[in-house]
Amino acid sequence: MAGLWTRAAEMAGKAPAERNRYVDFLRALSILAVVVGHWLVAAPYMQDGAVVGGHLLGILPWTQWLTWLFQVMPLFFFVGGFSNGISWAATQAKGGTFSDWYGGRLQRLINPVMPLFLVWSLFAMFGTALGVERSVVKMAAQLALIPVWFLAVYLIVSALVPFTYSAWKRWGMGSFWALVAGAVAVDFASVFNGIPAINWLNFLFVWLAVHQLGYCWQEGRFGARPLWFLGWLAVLAALVKFGPYPVAMIGVPGSDLSNSMPPTLALLALGNMQIGLALTLEPVMRRLLDKAAFWTATVLINGMIMTVYLWHLTAFVLVMVAAWLMGGLGLNMAPGSGQWWLARPVWFALYIAVTLPLIAVFSPFERMGSSAKDGPLKQVPHWRLILGLLLICLGLTLTAAISIASPEGVTGLRIWVVALPFIGAGLVGFGPAYTLVRRLDR
Known about the structure:
Strand content: under 5%
Distance between the termini: 30 Å
Radius of gyration: 22 Å
Structural class: mainly alpha
Mean pLDDT: 88
Low-confidence stretches: 370-376, 432-442
Oligomer: single chain
C-alpha cells in the first residue's frame, strides 16, 4: 500500500494545473458509493440450514430512501460527458478519427473485464465437480457479474459522442431538453399506458441526457446550480409522491416498477438533482482537492476504480461462501435487526480485506494498453469497430441478465455468452492476450 501511495503521489504531482480535479473525485465517489450500496443492500441469512439471499430494501422499506444517496451512477455518466467532450474535441483538432478515439476508450474499459469472465467461466465449468450445486453456481456467477451491465450502456453512450457532441455544439441545452422530452414520452407510453418494451429506450434517453450535461459543465455554461438542485429535487419528490414511481432508485424484489431497469423519469430527476448538488459544492471541493493528501487519495482510487467496481461483488461472494462453509457463521442474525446493523462494520472490513488482494492481482489489466510504450492501437475499419462493440455489449448484457453459468448442459457454462465479448474484442483488435503479445515483441 505504501508503494501504491507513493506512485499515486508522483502521478498526482504531474497533473497539469488546469485539470479539473473535481471530475476525478466525482468519478471515484460515484463508483465507491455503488460498491458500498451493493454491500449494504445484500442481506443473506441462514434459514433451515440454507443461505437465503435477502434484500435489505425489501426487508426494511424505510431503507429505500437511502438509494437517493447511493444510486449515483448518473454522476458517473455526467463526468463521462465532461471527459468525453474534452478528449473528442482534442481528437478532432488533431485531425484524428473516430477509430483513433474510441478504440482506446473501448480497450481501457474492456481489458479489465476479460479476467473476470475467465475466472467465473472456470468456476462455472468446474464448480459442480468441486461439489457445488449448479443452481448455486449460477446464482453466484450472476451476482458477481451484475456490474457488467453498466459497461454495456456506457460503451454505447460513448460510441454516440460524435453525434451528441455535435448536437451540443449546434443546439446547446436544447439537445438536453430534447432527450428529456424523449424520456417523458417513453414513460408516458410504457408506465402510464402499458405499452410493453418501449421503456428500454430510456437506457438511451436518460443516460444520454445526463451525459449531455457534462458538455455543459465542461464549457462553463452551467448556471443557477442551487436552483437546478432544488428544482429537480421538487420534481423527484412530486414524481414519487403523486406518480407511480417507487421511492427506491434501484429494483426491489416484489416491486412492479423499477426506476433503474430500465431508467425512468424518477431516476432522471434524481440524476439532475445530484448534479445540481455536486456543482453547488464544486468551489468548496476544489479547494479541498488542492490539498496534496486528498488529491493523492483521489488519484489512487481512480487508478484502480474499474477493478474495484468489477470485483467487489466477487469479494462479497467469497466472504459469503466462507461464512457458509463455517456453518453459517455470522449469518444467523435477522437482516435489519439491531444486531445486524452493529455487525456491518465487521462484514465491511471482511469485504475490503478480500477485495484488496483481488485489486493487487487484477488492477494491472486496467492499465494494459494505456501507456505510450504500448504504441498506438492499430486502425480498424469502422464496421469492425461497431460490430465488435455490439458483440461486446450483447455479451455483457446477457451476462448480467441470464448469467454465464447454466443449470443444464455438459459444461455448466453458456459458452456462447462468454465468447461474445472475446469475439468482439478480437474484431476490434485488442484484448489482454493481444496486449501481452505486443509487449513481448518489444
